């Protein structure tokens, strides 16, 4: 990242969010030394993580001055009573937002199998959750559309957009991490054509070793933009250098500057190479040209 990033890039990445897990958050002594105050921090809920650990992490982040958005994976929540219990615990520590996902398990633990059921349950509204994010897949999702394409994914997003229109919930799409701008731009165009006007928070991978990113990309089903990593892996002169999301961020920032109605309104960072490195990178990218002041 050059010392003086463009104003368009700075505007595009300012207000980024970042994702942590209880175990990765525990390694950070004080998030206030890394992130701008008020940063939205997603707390990922992996199957098997005790809800007490999730809530404790959320409470700590709220106390340190951050906006907290825990994951609520439908397929690991056994019933409505459990959903209500989790929502109540989060509300008690000052959380009023959640990312609703199906969850990375094949078989539901109980009553819920998709995020739409969580939305439609009424539990989150009753517990004071005013902002809900839902998953987006710019490169498709074989779990939802096994034969390829995006018919089922697009139908689900149209339903969620309709939910936003008929309720008071503030809803946005948070995507899987991507490595190339073109598939993201094409996907956003298709959303608009389908009548889905929800704002998009685009996922990118923070700085990390190339081998680490390839491993996560394969595990998460990242599709067409994997070619960016493959080209990088073929370049022996760059093979051992950390990968950073410079190119995708600059291209998306330029597209946003040229097309203000482009639905991507924020950047969400997956710190696959570590929270401190990702925070440092994004803070630097968010400084206006000529600025040397830290954001945090």
From TrEMBL:
It comes from Halovulum marinum. The keyword Oxidoreductase applies. This is Methylenetetrahydrofolate reductase. Keywords: Oxidoreductase. GO terms for molecular function: oxidoreductase activity. It comes from the Bacteria.
């Amino acid at each position: 990242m050059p010392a003086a990033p463009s104003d368009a890039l700075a505007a595009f990445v300012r207000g980024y969010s970042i994702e942590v897990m209880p175990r990765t958050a525990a390694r950070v002594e004080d998030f206030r030394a890394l992130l701008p105050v008020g940063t939205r921090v997603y707390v990922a809920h992996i199957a098997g993580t005790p809800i007490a650990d999730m809530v404790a992490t959320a409470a700590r982040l709220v106390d340190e001055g951050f906006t907290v958005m825990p994951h609520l994976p439908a397929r690991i929540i056994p019933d409505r009573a459990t959903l209500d219990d989790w929502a109540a615990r989060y509300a008690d520590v000052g959380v009023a937002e959640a990312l609703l996902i199906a969850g990375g398990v094949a078989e539901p633990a109980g009553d819920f199998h998709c995020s739409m059921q969580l939305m439609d349950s009424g539990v989150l509204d009753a517990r004071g959750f005013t902002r809900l994010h839902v998953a987006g897949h710019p490169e498709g999702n074989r779990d939802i559309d096994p034969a390829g394409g995006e018919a089922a994914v697009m139908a689900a997003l149209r339903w969620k957009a309709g939910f936003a229109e008929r309720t008071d919930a503030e809803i946005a799409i948070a995507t899987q991490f991507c490595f190339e701008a073109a598939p993201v731009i094409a996907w956003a165009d298709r959303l608009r054509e389908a009548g889905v006007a929800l704002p998009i928070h685009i996922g990118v991978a923070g700085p990390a070793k190339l081998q680490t990113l390839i491993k996560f990309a394969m595990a998460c089903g990242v599709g067409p933009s994997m070619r960016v990593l493959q080209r990088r892996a073929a370049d022996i002169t760059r093979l051992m250098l950390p990968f950073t999301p410079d190119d995708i961020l600059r291209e998306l920032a330029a597209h946003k500057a040229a097309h203000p109605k482009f639905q991507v309104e924020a950047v969400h960072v997956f710190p696959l190479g570590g929270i401190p490195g990702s925070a440092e990178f994004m803070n630097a990218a968010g400084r206006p040209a000529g600025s040397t002041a830290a954001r945090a």
